[in-house]
Specification:
The protein is α+β, with helices and mostly antiparallel strands and about 425 residues long. The protein has helices at about 15-25, 30-35, 45-50, 85-100, 125-135, 135-145, 145-150, 185-205, 230-235, 235-250, 255-275, 280-290, 325, 330-340, 345-365, 370-385, 390-405, 410-420; strands spanning about 60-70, 75-80, 105, 110-120, 155-165, 170-180, 205-215, 220-230, 300, 310-315. It has 3 domains: about 10-105 and about 220-365, 3-hydroxy-3-methylglutaryl-coenzyme A Reductase, Chain A, domain 2 (Alpha-Beta Complex); about 110-215, Alpha-Beta Plaits; about 370-420, Orthogonal Bundle (Helicase, Ruva Protein, domain 3). About 50% of the residues lie in helices and about 20% in strands. Bound molecules: (R)-mevalonate.
Length: about 425
């Protein structure tokens, strides 16, 4: 079914109406989306087996960002997070990109790195050569650990060795390069790294200690770019403002941390909604940003027509098979809503959300400031809490903002006056 992610006024609908709209747009049967609309229906038995000492569950609001078009395909974006404004901001930025065709993406393939640390190696550089001499044997041994991954077209592809200097002497670090296909890959890579350890010990004459995946997944990059319309942004002044805001982040780590945090607002929300490991994504993002001195994960410039061109490049170790993504009913429903077929497609969409989120934040910061948007969204929440429904939500919210008195008590009074 061809989806249309442009749903004007989605935010004005009631929750039930939004739910109906999602059925309409995606064609996913109601039963399959139930865990998402009714988290209480999630079987606690499932959660009980996910981690240890389970006593309950922690629910987060799950919103749907609209307007996303990535590589000429529309996507509805499930986002799980506690912070107001993020979903609205992402939808808004996606609309500005949509005007010029949406996001264009690419990726380097789902390739992860596993590290095997050897210490007390008598001749580290000779050991390196000896390990490289039996590279093919080691790759074969790694692939014997995961015939299913190999059958799906993945598996160990290459191996590299580095000798590093440390506070406790030189170490020989063997790095196994593994195509993990639609898996995040931690299990596959760790199993392979552990299997290679005895052979590396015998050939290096040292002792193997750590055998573990690296979260600096710089061989698993996704990229997205988009042109954001100058008129929708608010004019060329805003375009220049966004470029200057980005340059500030590039030049200053105090600003850059917050700039990249804004990107992760969008990225983590989708990563969490799809049951992926957001700590891995955070670690990958910030370590990649720090490789040549901490800098921005995005870039911006003004094109010859005065529009804003933005891009992002970021490691994206997300999976669609295994882990919570397959087990957790809400994560499964979210993957269905996204309609992604491969982990790299999911990664490319997530990168687009990160770029949209960053652009939205920079636009607000470079123009009216971040608080105005926050305040009007907060006012809508307050109006709804006071009992306003449908169109009244906006009318009450507007009045609250105008009076600079965004309180439930006042919202109730306004609601009563308007209802007379
Ligand atoms: C808040 O969660 C995120 C921002 O601080 C990001 C930024 O400053 O770019 C608004």
């Amino acid at each position: 079914m061809v989806r249309d992610s442009r749903i004007p006024g989605f935010y004005k609908l009631t929750r039930e109406e939004r739910m109906k709209k999602i059925h309409e747009v995606t064609g996913i049967p109601e039963g399959e989306l139930k865990p998402l609309f009714d988290p209480g229906s999630v079987d606690m038995e499932i959660l009980d087996h996910m981690i240890e000492n389970v006593v309950g569950s922690m629910t987060l609001p799950l919103g749907i960002a609209t307007n996303f078009r990535v590589d000429e395909k529309d996507y509805l974006i499930p986002m799980a997070l506690e912070e107001p404004s993020v979903v609205a901001a992402a939808s808004n930025a996606a609309r500005m990109a949509r005007e010029h065709g949406g996001f264009e993406t690419d990726d380097t393939g789902p390739v992860m790195i596993g590290q095997i640390q050897a210490v007390d190696v008598p001749e580290p550089f000779m050991a390196k050569e000896r390990i490289l001499e039996i590279k093919n044997e080691l790759i074969e041994l790694a692939n014997e650990q995961d015939p299913i991954l190999v059958r799906f077209g993945g598996g160990a592809r290459d191996l590299r060795v580095r000798v590093i200097d440390t506070k406790v002497g030189p170490m020989v670090v063997t790095e196994l390069i593994v195509d993990t296909r639609d898996a995040m890959g931690a299990n596959a890579v760790n199993t392979m790294a552990e299997a290679l350890a005895p052979r590396i010990e015998s050939i290096s004459g040292g002792r193997v200690l750590l055998r573990i995946l690296s979260n600096l997944a710089d061989l698993r990059l996704v990229r997205a770019k988009a042109t954001f319309d100058k008129k929708l942004l608010g004019g060329e002044e805003v375009v220049d403002g966004v470029v200057a805001a980005w340059a500030f982040a590039e030049a200053d780590p105090y600003r850059c941390a917050t700039h990249n945090k804004g990107i992760m607002n969008g990225i983590d929300a989708v990563v969490i909604a799809t049951g992926n490991d957001f700590r891995a994504i955070e670690a990958g993002a910030h370590s990649y940003a720090a490789v040549d001195g901490y800098s921005s994960l995005t870039k911006y410039e003004k094109n010859s027509e005065g529009h804003l061109v933005g891009s992002i490049e970021i490691p994206m170790a997300v999976g669609l098979v295994g882990g919570a993504t397959k087990i957790h009913p809400v994560a499964r429903a979210c993957v269905q809503i996204l309609g992604v077929k491969t982990a790299t497609e999911l990664g490319r969409v997530i990168a687009s959300v990160g770029l949209a989120q960053n652009l939205a934040a920079l636009r607000a910061l470079a123009s009216e400031g971040i608080q105005k948007g926050h305040m009007s969204l907060h006012a809508r929440n307050v109006a709804a809490t006071a009992g306003a429904k449908g169109e009244l939500v906006d009318r009450v919210a507007e009045q609250l903002v105008k009076e600079k008195n965004v309180k439930v008590e006042r919202a109730k009074e306004i609601l009563e006056e308007l209802s007379k």
